[in-house]
Each structure stands twice: as structure tokens, then as C-alpha cells.
Specification:
Layout: E1 3-9, E2 26-27, E3 30-31, H1 32-41, E4 46-53, E5 71-75, H2 80-88, E6 96-99, H3 109-116, E7 126-132, E8 137-140, E9 147-151, E10 157-166, H4 167-179, H5 187-193, E11 198-202, H6 215-226
Parallel strand pairs: 1-4, 1-6, 4-5, 7-11
Antiparallel strand pairs: 2-3, 6-10, 7-10, 8-9
Bound molecules: cytidine-5'-triphosphate and magnesium ion (MG).
């Protein structure tokens, strides 16, 4: 079956506090969104890229990639999960959806290759890139900055993207999770709620999500390392 890349890019980047949504800031000669789109479109296994944009987005049409034959745009929604769901509606049930944040431009092909191995497994419905937690983890007293106790970091992982699932199952899981009012902050959380097994694929830690201003020089460094 076909593998489609779905890119939620409809956020406004509140925490970045820039003059435009962070995916349109330029790093290493290109916008963050273009780095992300190119990382996926240049992979041989990915047949098409669907990008979800803010309804009032004035920036996308000016990008050199806009109008590429492998690219489709859809309108995003209020939350990330709504943006992903809008993109999934355009895809056939029997395809695979590889969902990846626009704000993670440092993705490399080796990580995509490792994630794609889940399509051959029958012990899991799909999988996600993830990194094991390295720091000691503290649980605070509710709403306070004092330590209640130390959490074990055994078996604790950071969930990254891309996240890869069969399109029909993921569309249903996101629809049901949102309808139930559950917090759906990634695709895997919806699939877990629906009772599916999700593989954790140990990822390159360079695949950071650009969130705050201090993340920009770090991402620029990783992008320069790639070439
Ligand atoms: N996103 C989206 N639709 C939304 C919210 C977020 O497509 N309604 C996308 C963002 O564009 C980003 C990814 O989801 O590529 C991860 O979200 P995040 O890092 O939180 O980006 P923003 O929501 O833009 O940033 P902030 O939360 O600081 O406002
Ligand atoms: Mg956000």
C-alpha cells in the first residue's frame, strides 16, 4: 500500500514569539517547513505529502515548493489532532499515514527507514520514533515547583514524530478520541486509547521539535551537519 506523509503545519507558534509562525522562519538557507517537506518528499518510499495549513496562512504560496506535483494542501483545525484528521480525510483507508510535525526539520532518511520496518510487523499496529529518557525524572506536588517524588525512568521514552499507522485505523482512532474528549497530543495516544499496540523505534536525538527561540541555533547546527 501507498505511504503518505501528513504534515500538521497549521500552528501559530505562540511559544516562539516570532513575527510569523515558526515553520516560516529561515534556517540554513530555507524555511523550516521546506526542510521538513524536502526530508520526506526526497524519500523513495513516500508517494505524496499532504500539508495542513492555517486557514489564514499568507506565507505558504510564496514558498518555492508550493505547487509541486507531490504536494497537496488542506485546511488545518483548532488543535494539532484536528489538522491531522483533516489531512487523513483525503487518503484511502488501506494506505499508511506517516505523520510528522512541520516543526521537526532535522529528520533524516535513516530514521524514516527504521520506522518503515513496522509495516512488516504483525505484533504492532504501527509505530513512532522515540528516545529513551536520560535525565532523572521528578514528579512535583500538584501545581507546585517542589518535589513529591522521583519517578523511575526505566521504560520511559520521549515520543517524537514521524508516527506511522494504517490510515483507516488512525482516522477512526483520532475521531473517537476527540469525540470522547481525551487529550490527544500525538497519533499514538489515540491508537493506544483504541487498544492498539504501538512500537517504539529508537530515534536520532537530532530530530528535535523547534518550540522556543533557543531551539533555532541547535536546529541550524543539525541541518548543517546533514549536508
Ligand atoms: N499544529 C497544527 N494545527 C494546530 C496546532 C499545531 O497543524 N492547530 C502543528 C504545528 O504547526 C507544528 C506541530 O503541530 O508543526 C506541533 O505543534 P507545536 O510545536 O505545538 O506548534 P505550535 O502550536 O505552532 O506552537 P505553540 O504551541 O507554541 O503555539
Ligand atoms: Mg501547539
Amino acid at each position: 500500500p501507498a505511504i503518505y506523509a501528513v504534515i500538521p503545519a497549521a500552528g501559530i507558534g505562540t511559544r516562539m514569539q516570532a513575527d510569523r509562525p515558526k515553520q516560516y522562519l529561515t534556517l540554513a538557507g530555507k524555511t523550516i517547513l521546506e526542510h521538513t517537506l524536502n526530508a520526506l518528499a526526497s524519500h523513495a518510499a513516500i508517494s505524496e505529502v499532504i500539508v495542513a495549513l492555517h486557514p489564514d496562512d499568507p506565507y505558504f504560496t510564496d514558498l518555492p515548493v508550493a505547487g509541486s506535483p507531490w504536494l497537496t494542501t488542506v485546511t488545518g483545525g483548532n488543535e494539532r489532532a484536528d489538522s491531522v484528521l483533516n489531512a487523513l480525510r483525503a487518503l484511502s483507508d488501506d494506505s499508511w499515514a506517516l505523520v510528522h510535525d512541520a516543526a521537526r526539520p532535522c529528520l533524516d532518511h535513516e530514521d524514516i527507514d527504521r520506522l518503515l520496518t513496522v509495516t512488516d510487523r504483525d505484533d504492532v499496529a504501527g509505530g513512532i520514533l522515540a528516545t529513551p529518557v536520560r535525565d532523572t525524572m521528578k514528579r512535583a506536588h500538584a501545581g507546585q515547583a517542589t518535589v513529591a517524588h522521583t519517578e523511575s525512568r526505566d521504560d520511559l521514552w520521549h515520543a517524537l514524530t514521524p508516527q506511522l499507522f494504517p490510515t483507516g485505523l488512525l482516522r477512526q482512532a483520532l475521531t473517537d478520541g476527540l469525540a470522547a474528549g481525551q487529550p490527544i497530543t500525538d497519533e499514538a495516544s489515540a491508537m493506544e486509547l483504541a487498544g492498539f499496540e504501538v512500537a517504539l523505534i529508537d530515534a536520532n536525538p537530532a530530530n528535535i521539535k523547534i518550540t522556543r527561540p533557543a531551539d533555532l541555533p541547535l536546529a541550524a547546527f543539525y541541518l548543517q551537519q546533514q549536508t
